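Aim 2, interim progress: modelling of the iron/sulfur cluster-bound target.
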Amino acid sequence: MKEGLIQGRLWVLTNDQGRLIEDIDTDQIYHNAYLHITDRRLMGQYALGNLAGWEDFARRAKPGDIIIAGRNFGAGSSRQQAVDCFLALGIAAIVAPSFGAIYFRNAVNSALPVIRCPAVENLVANGQLATGDEVRLSLLSGEGENLTQGIKFNFPPFSGVQLAIIQAGGLFAYAHQLEKR
Amino acid sequence: MGQTIIEKIIAAHCGRKVQPGEIVWLELDIVSARDFGGPNVVKNYEREYGDQPVFDPDRVVFTFDLCVPACTLKYADNQQICRLFAKRHGLRVFDVDCGIGSHVMIEEGLAGPGKTLVGTDSHLNIMGAVGCFGQGMGDVDITFSFKTGRTWFEVPRTVKVRLTGQPSPWATPKDLTLYLCKMLGTKQVALKAVEFVGEPVKQFSLTGRITLCSMVTEMAGIIGFIPELNGKTTQELMALPGFNLEEWPEPDPDADYENEISIDVSGLPPQVAVPYLPHKVKPITEVKGTPIDSGFIGSCTNGRVEDFRQAADILKGKKIKPGVILKCVPATRRVYQTLLEEGILEILFRSGAVVSNPGCGGCAEGHIGLTGEGEVQISTANRNFYGKQGKGQTYLASPAVVAASCLAGEIISPEEI
Ligand code: SF4
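Predicted structure of the complex, ligand included:
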């Protein structure tokens, strides 16, 4: 992560017609029935547990995997658990055309790279990004590559405070770094 | 180049002029946490900062509203964790008897024009109704803000939404709001600030403004403001403690907008959002006759006195259809008191409705119960996502439509009662 490079196996969140699912809200990501849980380690098992067709995601995902979702991923409530459940599973990054505002912040603050990449809509529609593909992402240069299919794409790179927070390992680590300066 | 409202408020809280797209450190006037998120904030805080003091005990508050009083042991524990933390740090707690945190903070004057406020409630952009920049955030953000009184923020672009025309007499602010959800979807103002202008919204009371601003969340917007005031609403605002009209935020005449969207609401009839998306909105004529099992009036979107008055006008002297349950949850204790004094509680009670203590009630695992599988509910809340209020199907509508539908046992326009 230091050089901002991430490589992993893809999960493309599509519906039964093979289209990217848009507007996946935080109740679908992490249902409010488990909001009382405060221990992150216990949260992974519920990730996407309320998203039709993806209820068994937590059992199939492996550490280092990368998720691609439709636009407005993480709409809805401010629950941090909707980010933490992916961290608990070791998910390396989430890529979507856009994210819910609060979700985006929560992910940055927890050092989960959330990559805004409008290009994925077409790439998924054309079959150029598919579940199981091996993908490499560079947060600093904004370059993505599907190693399985040999296809390249771009996204706006991370910069400023956001990059600093992700590289520090989250908002708290970043704040402690500032104190020490 | 002039500034939009959000640019002005952010500039005033970071000490310099700002450009959209910039990430700034924003000074916060109030930082809050509720019974969801709050215990996580406490846990994070003690892990990161031990027993160090918060940035300013007068500006950090807890508001309990989701599960009030706690109906499960876990929530009881979580609320107590927050209470004990508040005691150690000398913080105010608006406890389980007070009502919805965002509304309590408006009533108490903690949220005022030109101020900045964050908390763990995702509908805190409701504060736009009183000219305040409010924002819901996760527990990591809020922990950091407890300690530092600041947060990082990406200055959003602003979209101007202009409403024109004269809606039908049965269209309440909720109907206009639902129609805006439909027209704007989750793309048009996504991640943007919105300024709503034009005669129809200028005429909104404080209650109507709260309704519209609360649902900017459902439009995926950052926050909505309604800069134009009318005389009556100005009076209502001035009655809030510490309200300073001079701080009322207005955009510069030459402010730079991303774009302007014009929406004609001429003759607009009542609107209903059908399961499971708040922007899947239809005119009531298209869903008329849908049988319902239950109704809900309340939430941060429609839990004010005016909302219940609307419902009471329809329910007065009538009985809810046998077999239908209508649940009413006032937003705050003050709302509850006014309902009591104005005789509205009695009208609700005599019509057969269940009236509970103030709070969020219908959301999450709220204190007024959930919908069961196959149950059809019509609600004044802001979200009808699958699973949000139980396993049933939820339609969203105005208090008047909910009241009328509970009398009829099916979705119906109040004009037919
Ligand atoms: S009423 Fe519902 S949407 Fe509003 S603040 Fe409470 S939980 Fe959130």
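Residues 73-89 of chain B form the longest helix (17 residues). Chain B has a mean pLDDT of 96.
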